[in-house]
Amino acid sequence: MSTLLQHAQIDWDDQGRPHSRQYDDVYFAVNEGIEETKHVFLGQTRLAERFANLPAHSCTVIGETGFGTGMNFFCAWQLFDQHAHSDARLHFVSVEKYPLGHADMLRAVRLWPELAAYTEPLLEQYVAVHPGFQQFTFANGRVTLTLLIGDVLEQLPQLDAQVDVWFLDGFAPAKNPDMWTPQLFAQLARLSHSATVLGTFTTTGWVRRSLVEAGFAMKKVPGIGKKWEVMSGAYVGPMPGPAAPWYARPALAQGPREALVIGAGLAGSCSAASLARRGWQVTVLERHDAPAREASGNPQGVLYLKLSAHGTALSQMILSGFGYTRRQLERLQRGRDWDACGVLQLAFDSKEAERQGKLAAAFDHDLLHSLGRTEAQTIAGVALPAGGLFYPEGGWVHPPALCQQQLQHPGIRLVTHQEVVELRKVAGQWQAWAGDRLLASAPTVVLAGAADIRRFEPCAQLPLKRIRGQITRLPATPGSRSLRTVVCAEGYVAPPRGDEHTLGASFDFHSEDLTPTLAEHQGNLALLDEISTDLASHLGVAALDAEQLQGRAAFRCTSPDYLPIVGPVADPALFGEAFAVLGKDARQVPEVACPWLDGLYVNSGHGSRGLITAPLSGELIAAWASGEPLPLPRAVAEACHPNRFMLRKLIRGK
Ligand SMILES: Cc1cc2nc3c(=O)[nH]c(=O)nc-3n(C[C@H](O)[C@H](O)[C@H](O)COP(=O)(O)OP(=O)(O)OC[C@H]3O[C@@H](n4cnc5c(N)ncnc54)[C@H](O)[C@@H]3O)c2cc1C
Ligand SMILES: C[S@@+](CC[C@H](N)C(=O)[O-])C[C@H]1O[C@@H](n2cnc3c(N)ncnc32)[C@H](O)[C@@H]1O
Q: 322-337: per-residue pLDDT in tens?
């Protein structure tokens, strides 16, 4: 799988049209472009009628090959705005091999001032667009855009979605024969259902025949402008078989869209936000007096990407999660709630330098690049012992601000001082109890209480571990304010938020006590010394009375494979019975439904990188619970699935 990003190479011709150097073709005709889109894609798929007939809370999924400048997306969104019920949703999934750089995107969309209401929100969020699944949220969540960055033949097989309408774009088949292949058409068929329709500008004979072979009934229809004819189609082929039962989609909850979320840290707040944006009424129960009082309560956390050059599931999750979080942060106040000051990971020893070299070769320059020591010092503003890997789009976040912002939705009710002790399922409702007090109930519940979700019986067997960590708060000095970027080695230090720097963080695998300790403050100061003795001296560390140091401790919550645990939950005992045969033959896929605990979901195990994984995990929960396209490749969603541990145990016979 390619992790390297290549942007579109565009020449602007004398009529102001973008021309692709990679495909030697124009993206659109400058005058007829919008009319062509409206005729070929919106008209032939009768989109206005479809939108007008959408029931409340339903979601239309449009799939597209070739996002390009996004014109089809903007026009579809505009039409949706004009015709759809205010509670209906649009989810637009588009694949793009060569995404436009920001400057080209800006230049392209400014050609259509009449679409500014749709193009400007995209421009505001057009950051951290890297390979893989990149999700965007617009119009308070009414519109979702999932860009799959990469070749369509690599990306579409990873998509888990049911597409209602296809826009088959992409440059002309003669100019782009690699895309218009039977493999592509088979993917379109796999993702279609019995009411799926398709529009395309091409009438090329072999494209039409291949689409028919893949299961689409195609017809030529009158075109527009220079195109005499275009094509529309409908899927009439067979339906794909279901996924393996343990990772299949559970049936959707019937009745009102109401959910409980237990825990108001990053995982709970983001799950609540993702559900509320999809029209759910959400009650969040939190045991403390406010959100973000535990792991999510540090003054500054770092957007730290621990990637792998091998494109592992975790690495894909991190790249998608980073992009999603970064776009959410654009809505918060810079300087106070977060800062995109960049993150520098020092090459503090030869092993780390080697690891960084591999990453620099595997990923694009805009995401990360190596810096020599002198350049690194210039960017960081302090003297450093080594160069390192610089992530210009990274930075720090005040996690409580992100939690608060996520909870700001009229569909969310936060109830504090409520510790849930027991869950019961009664008459289709999950009830949250504290002793003999019924706190709340709803047909759907998301457990987002970090490692404490194990107190609820269905989650008791989840292998979650708590790791205590402590940060140290250091008052900024005039000299320390020269630090301009987050710098990490074994620990990390951030530029000041207000009058304080955050220095982190210790790891203690055994302690259950959250009182900050002197030893760990001293350990953090030793981590600072490894990062920069210059900064340590600006901060006057030698003269500090360690006993007076301020900080806080909390538990990280990790899983054995370091992936979060996100998704629907099955009954552990019944699961073992249903799939016992796997103990004898791991290749068997029994035709037995998974014994889901209907409406029960978890969002936990975010370890040391919740800022990157928890917000997108909220979207993943909402996608499972609402039947929408998954915001991550199927294989990554499976790698994060709560059932994975029971499955492995069965297969290993333990
Ligand atoms: C010292 C330290 C430094 C870190 N640094 C970074 C960093 O730089 N970058 C980064 O990305 N991540 C960092 N992390 C990790 C990050 O903070 C976590 O991954 C993230 O906060 C986890 O969010 P959560 O919502 O899962 O858990 P929490 O924030 O712990 O939230 C769980 C919530 O559930 C509530 N709850 C639990 N059980 C119940 C119940 N039964 N009833 C009611 N409420 C309940 C709790 O009160 C709590 O509010 C750090 C963590 C620590 C400890
Ligand atoms: C004609 S443009 C799309 C026009 C676009 N809908 C717009 O409004 O600008 C075709 C797009 O398809 C993309 N593309 C071509 N082949 C592809 C492939 N194999 N995988 C993914 N994207 C591809 C190109 O990079 C280009 O952006």
A: 999 999 999 999 999 9
